[in-house]
Write a structure and sequence with these properties.
By secondary structure, the chain is mainly alpha-helical. The protein contains seven helices and no strands. The protein has helices at about 15-25, 30-40, 45-55, 70-85, 90-95, 100-110, 140-175. The N and C termini lie far apart (about 65 Å). The relative contact order is 0.05.
Length: about 180
């Protein structure tokens, strides 16, 4: 939301053709404020599109391909951003990354130092090897008997627990004056 004017901008993906048409209108002299109001796009985003167009031509408006940044690349970008008098959006455009990613890397450096940029961050669901270990199939007769003994003990404990629960339910039913079921 634009706090000065109370405008609400919708977050929507824009096609390459839409971006190119809007940038060409800006190049023809239309003001950012007019374009922003007409299309409902934040001025910063419009400026970014124009800068990308100026730097890279029409390819700058196409959707960029995701490239996994290495620790050394991250460090280079953050050092460049901290040592230069160029604004963060310009640094982000220069290196082809988003401003939010650049801010995130800079925050990591401030909190943990440059070495933290080299740490591998694992995203997504953990691998299946993290869960329950695979069952070991007993090979010798002794291992087979031990496995069967463990299974029977677990089964016996389960039956005792079920019996206790049934007795508890029946005593509650008797206490309330109900007849226990014969099932």
């Amino acid at each position: 939301m634009d706090k000065k004017r109370g405008l609400v901008f919708m977050s929507k993906k824009h096609s390459y053709e839409e971006k190119l048409a809007i940038v060409s209108q800006k190049k023809e002299g239309t003001r950012y404020s007019a374009l922003s109001r007409h299309y409902g796009i934040d001025r910063k985003m419009l400026r970014e599109w124009v800068c990308k167009y100026d730097l890279y031509g029409e390819d700058g408006l196409r959707k960029s391909i995701y490239v996994k940044a290495t620790g050394s690349f991250k460090e280079e970008v953050v050092r460049f951003a901290l040592n230069k008098v160029v604004s963060l959006p310009q640094v982000a455009l220069h290196f082809g990354i988003s401003r939010s990613v650049l801010r995130s890397w800079m925050r990591i450096v401030k909190e943990k130092g440059y070495e933290a940029l080299h740490d591998a961050v694992k995203y997504g669901r953990p691998s299946k090897t993290m869960g329950r270990p695979k069952k070991h199939k007993p090979e010798t007769e002794l291992e087979k008997l031990q496995a069967e003994n463990a299974r029977l003990r677990a089964e016996n404990a389960l039956l005792k627990k079920v019996e206790a629960l049934v007795k508890e339910r029946e005593s509650r039913e008797r206490k309330n004056g109900w007849e226990p079921s014969k099932n």
